[in-house]
Amino acid sequence: MLPGANETRELALSSIDAWHVPYGSLSFNLDALSAFFLTLILLLGVLTAVFGKNSSGTTWFFFISLMFGMTLVVLAANALLFLFGWEIMSLASYFLVTTRHQEPGVRAAGWTYLVATHLGTIFLFVMFFLCEQKTGSFDFHAFSSLSAQSPEVLAAIFACAVIGFGTKAGFAPFHVWLPDTYPETPSHVAALMSAVMAKIAIYGLLRMLTFLGEPEAWWGITLIAIGIMSGLSGIIMALSQKDLKRLIAYSSIENIGIITIGIGLGLLGMAYQATGFAVLGFAGALLHILNHALFKGLLFLAAGSVLQATKTRLIDDLGGLLRRMPITGGLFLFGSIAITALPPLNGFISEFLIYLSALGGGLTLRFPANLPFLAAVLGLALIGGLALAAFAKAFGLVFLGRARSEHSTRASESGIWMLLPMVVLALCCVAIAFGSGFFLEEFAPIVGVLLPHHSAATEMTLQAVAGQAFAIAMLSGIFLAVLGILALFRYLLLRGRVVQTGVTWGCGYTKGTPKMQYTSTSFSEPLSLLFSPLAAMKTEVTAPSGFFPSAASLQRHVTDTFRESIYLPIFLRISALFSHFRLIQHGRLRLYVLNVVVTLLVLLTWKIGFSS
Amino acid sequence: MMTLMMIPICLALCFAPLLRSVINKTKAFFAGRKGPPWLQPYRDIRKLLGKDAVYSKTTTWLFRAGPLVSLTGVMLALTLLPMGSIPTLLAFPGDFLFLAYLLAQGRLFVVLAALDTGSSFEAMGASREVQFGALTEPVLLLAIATLSHHASMFSLSSIYQTGVPDIWSRAPIILLILALVFFVVLLSENSRMPVDDPTTHLELTMIHEVMVLDHGGPDLAFIEYMQALKLWIFSTLIVGLFMPSIELPVGLQCAIFLAGMGVVGVAIGLTETMMARLRMEKVPQLIVGAGMLSVFTLLLEVF
Question: By the 8 A CB rule, do B117 and B58 touch?
Answer without folding.
Answer: yes
